[in-house]
Amino acid sequence: MTGIPIMIIQLILSLSFLVIIHECGHFFPAKWFKTRVEKFYLFFDPWFSLFRTKKGDTEYGIGWLPLGGYVKIAGMVDESFDTEKLKEEPKPWEFRSKPAWQRLIIMLGGVTVNFIAGFLLFALVLGIWGEEYLPSRSVPNGIFTDSLGRVIGLKDGDKILKVGAVDFDIFDHRMLRREVVINGAKTITVERDGQVIDLPMEDRFIHDLSSNKNKNSTLIGPRVPVKIDRFSESSPAQAAGLAVGDEIVSLNGTPMFINDLTKTLRQLKDSSVTLVIKRGGQELPFTFKTSAEGTIGAYTLPVLSVERKKYGFMESIPAGINKGLGFLSDQIKAFGQMFKGKIKASESLGGFASITSLFPDTWSWEDFIRITAILSLILGFMNLLPIPGLDGGHVVFLLFELVTGKKLSDKFIEKATLVGFILLIALMIYANGLDVFRFLKK
User: Fold this and answer.
1) What is the pLDDT of residues 256-272, one digit of tens each?
2) Most buried residue among 167, 219, 296, 319 by CB atoms closer than 10 A?
């Protein structure tokens, strides 16, 4: 199975796992402090559930609305707004009867588990597969650019040396985006035609680089030679004597790189061309005619010297934590850029379609675990925001109580939670609406 169905399956499996461990983060502390948990649900169950069973005081089930999950803790104002029991005197086993520090631990349990899971999943990926990267030293011919790369001032053949104050030792277009958009790098230092120059990064480039329409833009790529991987039927190149494994050096006397070949050939339809190839350390010329479509009947691959860093068990854990902390740091900085108005929230927001697009269209355990790690940290981070209806909103109320010694009334918390819940529903509708709008614009 490939394509959109496998992407949706990965999304459901990933979110189901994350929701369950998040709710376990609330469930177990509540049990430890002898607080009654009335429900534990994966997905929401308005009107009916797909499955349910009761064990002790708790009903366990699966709802039909896959927008998250919940644990219903007795004596707590939550999104169910079941406040009838709150009119009665507090019972010893209710949430509201517990000391503020215990309630705080119960509320922080979910995000804590998500953060820990994110760090450990990153460590798992590094421990099993390591980390693949392309050293910039392995790209001696510089970069090729797409239209967005050219907008910010880069040119084919540039060798990127630094982005801001950070050395460009690893060839990674995402690092370039991150430094400009999130860390506010003001220059990109490149070597161009033998000279070192600084390209100024204007504030307007931040919008271009963070725009949702440009999210799939590669921006830059390594300008590397290509070699022949296989031939099509009736291949002009194969008929002329080219073989699998040949490295293409030039076309009609012009050096050829991965970004140039197809584009150049399309301008030479049904034309005689001379390809120089490298085979066994020798450069050999071949002259033949292209097809009417401007092809040579060969499938090519870039000649890349990709490396993979391996981690031992004891190395992978701190490396995974550092990777997770770096990701969280970027999220916080991105929020800061939004508040400054440099990044538009509408460009960064997305609904379930945007989340689904994170997954590859074929199954890969490495990608699945890595993306689940990212989503776990995002879930923990978003739930910690001080918005009533989220864990962070409850944490703010409890911190107020711990600092002042005054407990906020259930009525106030109920109204604040209702306002927060309405805001969250509106935000969810808006985010998914953006996905629909972007799809219709295509």
Assistant:
1) 998 888 889 999 999 99
2) 296
Cβ–Cβ < 8 Å for 357, 351: no
Q: What is the pLDDT of residue 369?
A: 97
Q: How far apart are the first and last CA of the chain?
A: 26
pLDDT at 136 over 70: yes
Quickly list H helices, 220-364: 236-239, 261-265, 313-339, 345-348, 352-356
Q: What is the overall mean pLDDT for the chain? A: 90
pLDDT greater at residue 414 or residue 238:
238
The DSSP bridge partners found for residue 70 are 41
Q: Distance between CA atoms of 141 and 3, rounded to whole angstroms? A: 35
| Position 83 confidence tier, pLDDT thresholds 50, 70, 90 | low
Predicted local confidence at residue 82, as pLDDT: 60
- The three-class DSSP label of residue 249 is strand
| All structural domains of the chain | 4-129+367-441 (no CATH), 132-222 (2.30.42.10), 226-302 (2.30.42.10)
Strand partners, 256: none
Structure tokens at 341: 């108005």
Given this model, what pLDDT does residue 436 score? 84
Q: Residue-wise over 245-260: b if at least 16 C-beta within 10 A, else e?
A: ebbbbbbeeeebbbbb
Where residue 374 falls among pLDDT bands split at 50, 70, 90? Answer: very high
Whether the CB-CB separation of 360 and 7 falls below 8 Å is answered with yes
DSSP, res 364: -
310 in Cβ contact with 283 (< 8 Å):
no
Pairing relationship of beta strands 307-309 and 131-133 according to DSSP bridges: antiparallel
| 19, amino acid identity | V
Q: How many CB atoms lie within 10 A of CB 167?
A: 12
What pLDDT, on a 0 to 100 scale, did the predictor assign at position 361?
87
Residues contacting 430, CB < 8 A, separation 6+: 349
Helices 4-32 and 100-129 meet at what angle, rounded to 10?
Answer: 140
Sign of CA dihedral 162, 168, 169, 175: positive
